[in-house]
Known about the structure:
Elements: H1 2-17, H2 22-36, H3 50-62, E1 83-89, E2 92-97, H4 102-108, E3 122-123, E4 126-128, E5 134-136, E6 143-148, E7 151-155, E8 161-165, H5 167-171, E9 178-183, E10 187-192, E11 198-201, E12 205-210, E13 218-229, E14 239-242, E15 246-250, E16 254-259, E17 266-272, E18 275-279, E19 285-288, E20 292-299, E21 302-309, H6 312-316, E22 322-329, H7 330-341, E23 344-347, E24 355-361, H8 366-375, E25 380-383, E26 386-389
Parallel strand pairs: 3-10, 8-10, 13-14, 23-26
Antiparallel strand pairs: 1-2, 4-5, 4-9, 6-7, 7-8, 9-12, 10-11, 11-13, 12-13, 13-16, 14-15, 15-18, 16-17, 17-20, 18-19, 20-21, 22-24, 25-26
Helix pairs in contact: 1-2
Amino acid sequence: MMKDWYRYRELAKKWLKGTISQAEKEEFSTWYNTEQDKDLDIPPYIAGSEEEHREKLLNNIRNEIGRRQKPKKFVARWVSLAASVILITGFSIFFLIRTDNRKNDLQQEKMLSLANDVPPGKDQAILILGDGKKIALETANIGEFAQNDGLIISKGSDGQITYTVSDQALEKSNLTSKHTIMTPKGGQYKVVLVDGTTVWLNSSSSLTYPTRYDPKVRRVHLKGEAYFDVAKQDNKAPFIVSTDRQDVKVLGTQFNINAYDNEVAETTTLVEGRVQVTTKGQEKEQILLPGHQSKVGIRNNEVFLQMAKTDVEEFTAWKDGYFYFNDLDIYGVMRQLARWYDIEVQYERMDIPDKFAGKIPKDSNLSIVLGVLKTAGVSFNIEGSVLKIN
C-alpha cells in the first residue's frame, strides 16, 4: 500500500512538471477518484471523525511520525483531467483545478475569505533618467514618451519599454549616462535595452544600465531578480550582469538571476547558451551550462560558489505568470508572496519543516493563494498587510 502511495506521489509531481503521459494521467485519475470516495474506518481510540483524523495525520507528518499512515481522504475535488495546480506536502496531495478559464475556476475554488483581500501585483515601475528625472511607467503614454541622451524611449501597448537610437545620437556617439528602472513590491516590468537585450524585472528589483555601451563590454547592475534574453553583437562585446556578490558574463543567451538581499545565496539559472560566473572579493569562476544553476553566498565568512543541475522552470516561472514551488520550505514560499503582494510576514516559530510543491497563477488574489496553502495545512491569520504564520 505504501509503495502505491509513493507511485502516485511521483505521478503528481510529473503532472506538475508537464512530463506525465496520457496513460499515467488516466492511472492517476482512476486512483484518485477511487480513493477520495472511500470512507475511512477510524477506530474510536484514534479519532472521533475523519476531520480529526486528518488533522492528526498532518501533525504526524510534520513530526515525521505520519510515515506509518496514509491519508485516504483528500480535501480538494477532482473536477477533470485539467489539473494545473498541485500542492504536495508530506504525504498529502492537494489540487486546484482549472479548465480553459483559469481565473474564474480559481475564484470558484477559493477556500478563504479575507475582509480586505489583497490583489496581485501588476506591471509598474519607475524609470530614473540620467538627469535624475523620474517617470512612472505605469502611467506613461503609449508610444514615444521621452528623449534622453540621444535615445528615444517608447512604451508599447503591452507596457514594454524600448530604447532606440535617434539621428542625433548617431552624430554624438560619445554621449552617455546611466538609467535605472525600479520595481516596487507588487510590481514587475519588461524593458528592451539599446542593444536589443530584453529584461524582465521581478518585484522589488532594480536594473541600472548605460544609455550607450562601451565598445568592449556591455555591463549592467542588478539588485533583486531579473530574467535576461541577451542580444548578440557583431563585435562580440560580452554582456555582464553585476550584482553585490558576482559578475555573470555572457555573449548571447537566456538566464535568470536572483540576487535579493534576503535570500541565502544569489542564484544564476541558465536556460540556453553559456555563461561565466565570477564571485567578487575572493574570486572564483564557474562556467554554467544549460539546465544548471550556480549559487554564490557566504559561509563561515568565506565566499562559496556551487553549481548543480536544476529544474529551470522553477526559477523562471515568475516571468510567465506563475509561482512554482518545488519542495520549497514555508519561508521561501512566503518571501515570494511578500514581494508580490506587498505584505509583511511574521512567524510564531522558525523551525517549520514542511515542504511545498505546486504551481499557482500570479494573477490570483492573495485569498486564493492562502486558500491553497490552508488546504495544505498552513495555519495563519492576517491583520491588514501583516500575515502571521501559526
